Amino acid sequence: MKKHVLPLLLTFLLCITINPSTALAAELIPQISIKTPECDAVFTLENVNDYYVVGTGTDENLPLYRFEFTGTDGKVTCNLTAGIWANSFWPDEFWNDSYIAPAGWSLSYPADWLEMDGERAYMVHLTVHEDGSLDAWWESDKPAVAYIQFIFGYNPNIPYVSEDSPTHPVSELAVSPIAESPSPWAKPEVEAAIEAGLVPEHLFKNYAKPVSRGNVAQMFINLIEKASGQSIDDFMDSKNVSIDSNAFTDTSDRAVLAANALGIIQGVGNNRFDPNGTLTRAQIAAIINRVARVIGVETEGYTHGFTDVMGHWCSVELGWPVHAGIIKGESASSFNPNGNLTTEQAIAITYRSLAPLSQ
């Protein structure tokens, strides 16, 4: 979209004829996850009107999805990294800024980085590219296939999306919450882990499935960086450790090689790491202890109350993680050491490890 078109678009939006009954009749959806046909990103919308518009107001005549939030508690959360472009506008004012959001960004009304006075609305603009990626409206030279607008405003009687274009129910873009959402017990910690930058984007789904060894390596390398305040390269330098690029024949993933070099996750033998293999609950307890020891946390001298690990090799690994609140059993006396570790369990454990390892 050409840069000079946007002021014209805003002028159009502010001058359109409004039908108050349309806005008053619209109901807000408390929370719904959506995905547009052209986009790989999943957006979770809170308190969005129950309709949206697909217009074409761009030079390329591409789809323009426009969603309106009203009141003071509208919110949109995206599961992917995306540059976002927002503007605050009122008839005689125009303001804009570029904001590069982290993975799993979330934006509410009023945004903490955009001063509002209760008499303005603002928009978030996204460009969707052929590969399904997102960025700010004109921040990239890659070909666009669609645009998305999220419109926040204080006045429910100004439905910016209800123009002459046909409206559609937001529910028609809904995605299955089963595949995209963690279990209720895990949701707060998963969301916090994503916000903290511990979770790779490709793990923002399939939370109940077993997690792979390669993904655990990535999360724990992220954990070390966050807890130490250093890049993994600087951290390894401080430990006089270096990556062996020939350590494994079945992966060259840098996070895996770094985790192996630090002694956190070892291979399975015969120069193989088995990055797509799974881990047990016992194995994650051992990995947590190794991470703690590498960072310099003392893990000796702690006990636990699980009776189903008597004689199991992992029993000695459980004391400190249980004491620190990182590892939890399936009951007060049962740990289930041989159970498969799921993605949401691994994410929750990684997040619980951040505070104890950062002290």
Report on this structure.
The chain is an alpha+beta fold and 359 residues long. Helix content is 27%, strand content 20%. Strand 8 and strand 9 form a beta hairpin. The N terminus is likely disordered.
Cα-to-Cα separation, first versus last residue: 48 Å
Q: Round the mean pLDDT to the nearest integer and report it.
A: 79
* Series of secondary-structure elements, N-terminal to C-terminal: HHEEEEEEEEEEEHHHHHHHH
Helix content: 25-40%
Uncertain parts: 1-25, 111-117
Structural class: alpha+beta
Number of domains: 2
Q: Number of helical runs?
A: 10
The shape is: elongated
Please indicate the percent range of residues in DSSP E strands (runs of 2 or more). Answer: 15-25%
Q: How many beta strands in the DSSP annotation?
A: 11
Major sheet characteristics: 11 strands, mixed
Specify Rg, calculated over alpha carbons.
24 Å
Question: What labels would you give this structure?
Answer:
359 residues; 2 domains; eleven-stranded mixed sheet; 20% strand; single chain
What is the topology?
Elements: H1 5-15, H2 20-25, E1 28-34, E2 43-55, E3 64-69, E4 75-78, E5 83-90, E6 93-100, E7 106-108, E8 121-129, E9 134-135, E10 144-153, E11 167-169, H3 177-180, H4 187-195, H5 213-228, H6 232-238, H7 254-261, H8 281-295, H9 319-323, H10 343-358
Parallel strand pairs: 3-10
Antiparallel strand pairs: 1-2, 2-3, 2-4, 2-11, 4-7, 5-6, 5-8, 8-9, 8-10
Helix pairs in contact: 4-10, 5-7, 5-10
